[in-house]
Design goal:
By secondary structure, the protein is α+β, with helices and mostly antiparallel strands. The chain folds into 3 domains: about 190 residues, Aldehyde Oxidoreductase, domain 3 (Alpha-Beta Complex); about 325 residues, Aldehyde Oxidoreductase, domain 4, CATH 3.30.365.10; about 120 residues, Aldehyde Oxidoreductase, domain 4, CATH 3.30.365. It has 18 helices and 30 strands. Strands 3-7-1-14-11-12-13 form a 7-stranded mixed sheet. The protein has a 5-stranded mixed sheet with strand order 9-18-17-16-10, sandwiched between helices. The chain has a 5-stranded mixed sheet with strand order 20-21-26-27-30, with helices on both faces. Strand 23, helix 13 and strand 24 form a beta-alpha-beta unit.
């Protein structure tokens, strides 16, 4: 029976609950919020990448008619003695204090009733600096004498981050190491040794709703309205900064116009909170598209991989070094360094593994989570490396992967045994969808065609906690209270389907209450494709608790819920339409911390995300232009809660990664971003999307997941970049090891191959 033909709610492609509100323009967004007496804030930003602040002159800005106040870091410090925040280290000031660490860092804020007045005045804030040496490259940051942070204060917020220390007088925020077997000895014994270095660039999330937050002071309380993926964390961190009880801080989140990891942890929330308390009026800050470029980026990375291979094609040893460019502030970069770093060997069964993964500070805008949490950077390297080895050995790339693939029941590099990870299934299915064993049209003349296949995987983040409440009303309808943020991924619908399935009620009768820390219970954050598994389990338990209480009530009044409407059960009990049943549920998966010295653990993750990508390209050898004609994404998502949402998630992820692969790159000159606009920073348009775009979820089950499901939001990002690079190599015999894969980069490689390289 097809999923769409099932009678229950789970497994059906039910239309999104919020669809009508969004297409009619009735959906609530913070950008539309207006509060009585509200002031607008506009930010004056640093013009240099690294320097000590000698003087801030706000007189000209304050003199502009309509300006209410100009606020600097000194004003913030008078309110909050230690105004630093961050999920890994408390390293980022609300406004720059003694020095600035990147070009574009907030230095002052102008407040006015008219945002245009505030913007004009912000341009008049005069800051004098003593320039300091700067460092921009992640590898150079390892030994640079330019030190971004002299002292690091670990946040200690999350259990798996409590060991973070950082190295004093260096730019290393975290150095993670993993050792399994003896990689150095195995490399010496290997029949062949291959070594390659890959690089990825700094790119941007570009949600079409830029960052926006508003704060509303009350009588000893504070309400924050924000476009955030982590309202529970925002409440905790703001309360810590203010030294208030959490009960005095309320965080409300409506719909988000995209997030992709950008709107995690603290972004504008601490700033608007401090401003609102200073002026005792509501304050709102809405960033422009340009200002997104100065707020958070994706980690650029340099990756070196060295592999030992036996005569039969088995990979016997792998050594990996990864340098992550974290920018001026750590954000969640150290967690990426650790959690993604241990997957650097790839989804392969390798006995001897040696990994060093470094989170580095530089004088660029901060880097943090971006759809994939570091995994696309790693897959770019290890799957390019894999194809290069296969070609050197004259082995078919798919066959080479089959020989080395990591299968269920075998330990990953951490020692954690792989379970419910359909790596073999996605590889075989993408090969079948690509007709890999059949003849392929290679093109003719100046246009050549090629194809590539890759696989990638990710360990979901752990440990994290989710809590949910189901309120069953006396008329048989219900409300679901959870702090998962629907930012376009369809989580409201998926969670409502779980409730509808368990309670046996129509999904139309379920209201999903948007995150509001005063009414919705704790959730660590909406990130890392964890919501379906973590919050889905919490929601399932809450619905089961409500169901069990309903069954008990039915027994008490002498009826059966199989034959009696829920509303009648309540009427039998209370004599009228009255009463509620409250079900609650929480979920935190098991986890075993990694050994500090070896990175070994028996339980690194609750589940593995697995994806494969196949690409077909056409390359114009006269111009270097690459056209992706076909992109096939095959994923292990367990058993889908909503198949249509799964398909759109895979499409969206792949298209986003396509932009990072072919065109997107933040350009810098002396630390200044020189293409901070959508006119110059090119995200994919409709004409860039391949004509052949195919998505499929293999038949699988995630044991322990709600109804066998697990997350999917990032899976489609894993393999796009290396699949296209492998296809280019297949078409014209040139290997690109740095992103993006622009026409110029391909043309330069073609000229170099011909022995006639272009001069710079």
């Amino acid at each position: 029976m097809r999923a769409e033909e099932k009678r229950g709610a789970v497994g059906r492609s039910i239309p999104r609950l919020e669809g009508r509100a969004k297409v009619t323009g009735r959906a609530e967004y913070v950008h539309n919020l207006r509060l009585p007496g509200m002031l607008y804030g506009k930010i004056a930003r640093s013009t240099i990448a690294h320097g000590r602040i000698k003087r801030i002159d706000v007189a000209a800005a304050q003199a502009v008619e309509g300006v209410h106040r100009v606020v600097t870091g000194a004003d913030i410090r008078a309110l909050i003695p230690d105004p630093h925040y961050g999920p890994a280290f408390h390293d980022q000031p609300i406004l720059a204090l003694d020095k600035v660490r990147y070009a574009g860092e907030p230095v002052a804020v102008v407040l006015a009733s008219d945002p245009h007045v505030a913007e004009e005045a912000a341009g008049l804030v005069d800051v004098q600096y003593e320039a300091l040496p700067a460092v921009y490259d992640e590898v150079e940051a390892m030994t640079s004498k330019a030190i971004v942070h002299e002292v690091l204060k670990p946040a200690g917020t999350f259990p798996d981050l409590k060991h973070f220390q950082g190295r004093k007088n260096t730019n290393v925020a975290l150095d993670f190491r993993l050792r399994r077997g003896d990689a150095e000895a195995a490399l010496k014994k290997a029949d062949r040794v291959f070594e390659h270095t890959f690089r990825t660039q700094q790119v941007l999330h570009v949600p079409l709703e830029p960052f926006v937050s508003a704060a509303e002071p009350g009588d000893g309380t504070l309400t924050i309205h924000t476009a955030s993926q982590s309202p529970s964390f925002v409440r905790t961190e703001i309360a810590r900064l203010l030294e208030w009880p959490e009960s005095k801080v309320r965080v409300k989140v409506p719909y988000l116009g995209g997030g992709f990891g950008a709107k995690l942890y603290i972004k504008l929330e601490a700033l608007v909170a401090a401003l609102a308390l200073l002026v005792r009026r509501p304050v709102k800050i809405s960033l422009t598209m340009e200002e997104q470029f100065y707020t958070l980026t994706k980690h650029a990375a340099t990756l070196r991989i060295k592999s030992g291979v036996a005569k039969d094609g088995r990979v016997t040893a792998r050594l990996c070094e990864v340098w992550w460019n974290g920018g001026a502030y750590a954000d969640i970069g150290p967690r990426i360094t650790q959690k993604s770093g241990f997957t650097a060997p790839g989804p392969y069964d390798i006995e001897h593994v040696h990994i060093d993964s470094y989170a580095l500070y530089t004088n660029l805008p901060p880097a943090g989570a971006l759809r994939g949490f570091g995994i696309p950077q790693l897959v770019w390297a290890y799957e390019g490396h894999t194809d290069m080895i296969a070609r050197e050995l004259k082995m078919d790339p798919v066959e080479f992967r089959r020989k080395n693939i990591l299968r269920d029941g075998r330990p990953q590099a951490t020692g954690t045994v792989m379970q419910d990870a359909a790596i073999d299934k996605v590889l075989e299915r993408v090969a079948a969808r690509m007709d890999w064993g059949k003849p392929f049209d290679r093109g003719s003349g100046t246009v050549r065609r090629g194809r590539g296949v890759v696989i990638g995987f990710k360990a979901v983040i752990a440990p994290t906690t989710s809590v949910a409440i189901v309120n069953l009303y006396a008329d048989g309808s219900c409300a679901l209270y959870c702090s998962t943020v629907d930012m376009g991924q369809g989580s409201d619908t998926a969670m409502a389907q779980i409730v509808a399935e368990i309670l046996g009620i129509p999904i139309e009768s379920i209201t999903v209450v948007h995150p509001d820390t005063e009414v919705t219970p704790y959730d660590m954050a909406t990130l890392g494709s964890r919501s379906t598994y973590h919050m889905g389990n919490a929601v399932r338990r809450a619905a089961e608790d409500a169901r069990d209480k309903l069954l008990a009530l039915a027994r008490e009044v002498g009826v059966s819920v199989e034959t009696t409407p829920i509303a009648e059960v309540f009427r039998r009990k209370y004599g009228m339409q009255a009463g509620n049943i409250i079900g609650s549920g929480s979920f935190i998966p098991t986890y075993m911390p990694m050994d500090h010295d070896t990175g070994q653990t028996a339980n690194a993750t609750p589940f593995w995300m697995v994806g494969a990508t196949g690409a077909e390209v056409e390359v114009d050898t006269e111009t270097g232009r690459v056209r992706v004609t076909r992109l096939v994404n095959v994923a292990d998502v367990g058993t889908p809660i909503n198949p249509a949402i799964v398909e759109s998630q895979l499409s969206g992820a792949a298209i986003m990664q396509l932009g990072f692969t072919m065109s997107e790159k933040m350009e810098f000159s002396a630390g200044q971003c020189t293409n901070a606009s959508l006119a110059q920073y090119k995200i994919p348009g409709l004409l860039d999307v391949p004509e052949g775009m195919e998505n499929e979820a293999v038949d699988a089950e995630q044991k322990g997941g709600p109804f066998g499901a697990k997350g999917v939001g990032e899976t489609g990002t894993f393999g796009v970049s290396p699949a296209i690079a492998n296809a280019i190599d297949d078409a014209v015999g040139v290997r690109l090891t740095s992103l993006p894969l622009t026409a110029e980069a391909v043309y330069r490689a073609l000229r170099a191959k011909q022995g006639n390289p272009l001069k710079d």
